[in-house]
Amino acid sequence: MGRQIWMVWFGKPRHAAAQHAQESPRVITIPLMVLAGLSILGGALNLPGVHSLSIWLEHTIELAEHELEVAPWLQISWGGLNPLVALFSTLLALLAIYISWLIYGRRPLETGQKDPLKKALGFIFTGMENKWFVDEGYQAVFLKPYTAISRFLAEVIDGRFWHDFVHEKVIAGTYNFVSRTVLDLRIDQQGIDAIANGLGELTRRISSTLRRLQNGFVRTYALAVLFGVVAILGYLILK
């Protein structure tokens, strides 16, 4: 935290983004002030003689006290406050702040200057700088295989196989063949239409033939009556 404070809030800007950075508007700074006040209030909940936080978590703290064995020299307390633990924690925090000031605060880093701890810590600094390559490992183990599987399912299974082959060729192709070749060409055009057209053509030919009898001449009609009478007489005689 000391390194972060010295590098962020002290020294000259080391890149363009920091150089042109502006103070946040009130819509952001006021909530930050409220959160800062609440953090101070939260720390004061367990001051010696208050112990509000301990009362809230009494059942959990009592269980932990029964389960954990504390060294005798740490059992000394004053008003619920262990002075040895508090003193040691405070000195440790001040020492860490002082060490961070020696490294980063006394001589702030310049633009392009490497971190002083990079050479001293070596691979440890590299690991912390790259978050121990957790994101890269997550990408390699989970995201890349998941993306590859998703792309395979989307392009090969869903696209090429299901859509292009099953849907377009098998289902749509079969439907088009049955509807166009079998139903339309064979059954409809060469079957139903052919029968209907044949009946129409037969009717047309019969009507053309019969139309010749309706020529408007009396002799033609008299001859037709004569043939009718002869046909009836012949039928009656032969019967």
Task: Please describe the topology of this protein.
Elements: H1 2-9, H2 16-19, H3 26-44, H4 52-56, H5 58-67, H6 83-105, H7 116-121, H8 123-129, H9 134-211, H10 218-238
Helix pairs in contact: 1-6
The largest sheet is: none
Spatial shape? rod-shaped
Helicity level: over 70%
User: How many DSSP-defined strands?
Assistant: 0
Q: How do the helices and strands follow one another from N- to C-terminus?
A: HHHHHHHHHH
Count of separate DSSP helical elements = 10
Structural class: mainly alpha
Amino- and carboxy-terminal Cα gap: 132 Å
Strand content: under 5%
Radius of gyration: 51 Å
Calculate the mean pLDDT score and round it: 82
Structural notes for this entry:
By secondary structure, this protein is mostly helical. It is 76% helix and 0% strand. It has ten helices and no strands. It starts with a helix and ends with a helix. 1% of the residues are buried.
Which characteristics define this entry?
single chain, 239 residues, mainly alpha, rod-shaped
In short:
With 239 residues, the protein is mainly alpha-helical.
